[in-house]
Amino acid sequence: MKPRFTFTLLILLFSLCQIQAKHLLGGTVSYKVLGKSSSSTQVEISFFMYKDDTGGGANFDSFAPFGVYGANGNNYNFLFTINENPSNVEQIEIMSTDSCSFLSYSVARYTFEVELPNSTYEKYVIGYVRCCTATNISNIDPMESGMALALTLYPAAFEFEEEAKVVPVTSIPFFTGEYIDTLIDMSIDDEYTKEYLLTRPLVGGGIAGVNFGDPQACDGITPNPLNCPPPYAGVVYLDEDTPYGMGSEVNLDAMTGEFHFNIPTLGIILFEMTINRYAEGEILSSVNHRWTTNTSVCIETNVEEPEPSFCQDIKIIPNPTADFISVNCNILDVVILDATGKVVKKYDAFLFGLSTDVSDLSNGLYTVKATTFDEEPITLRFVKTGPR
Hints:
This protein is an all-beta fold. It has one helix at residues 155-160, and strands spanning 8-10, 14-16, 23-36, 40-52, 64-72, 75-84, 88-92, 105-117, 123-131, 146-153, 174-176, 182-185, 193-198, 249-252, 258-262, 267-279, 282-295, 316-317, 324-327, 331-337, 343-350, 356-357, 364-371, 377-384.
């Protein structure tokens, strides 16, 4: 039987929930000018980080380091670091009628104030770099596990926005399903002229410090802003000719912000958009917005006559494995047990097309117990090999 593909739109509805998160999915930045004196301008800045809650993983960063830089041309001068805790962590509710609705995402907001000298630099950059983007993203080099978000403010922003106008946050869309002729409004609503550009996602940070190395190095999990200034490099696409996957059709209207895309193949695709804002011909600010789409197989649960599950022969792939495993079906309530029967990992779900890291397990035989969408219990086994 041919799998049924469905479309799910993840609306960013916020409800308070402290939650564990596994992979970075994207982020955005907002700001407002609080006031201006003869020598400096006070600006409130908010970074929004989005993560995948499926499975286990680390919390959002506490005491996260945000670097502040002054720049003339491509010469960036480190000014200071602001360390900030998330003001709140909220779950993103998923509005869906299909069986993918158990997917869970969360957002953390980091808000702080900075005082920037007037007319000292051509621009100011506030940047945040860290590990780790999901390692199973389909269109980029999997070794580029870090990400960078940056807000660039120009002197004109302090003149035209001195009445503390809040810059609206663009909603970050996360999708799962089959995307055919999908049109999303990515625009922000204010009186300024905007330019919307699809750009290469920025890289920052890495996995140094997880098992070895310096976590504050530029390829570490929490890079030190003092030693890791902009400009941030862009990712390497696996195929530069088709950066969003074979057969994909992607278009972002530079003037309206309407984003049209058709991603026909399975997998997670990483996108980034830069929004430049202008007033009377002068640039005010530039910010990158980062998000993912996930084309996956879902089984509809609200049909009158349920069709047989396409999961006829559920397998763990690869088997044996040294690092990651995946399954060829969506399964729920996943428990991994070692050879003694001890529970070593628990997950809400394993999703078709997504990988789960088991590299921290000792070598040996493991049993996976779970249930299908038909509430049938299943038992699978895999062998972990290779270095721990």
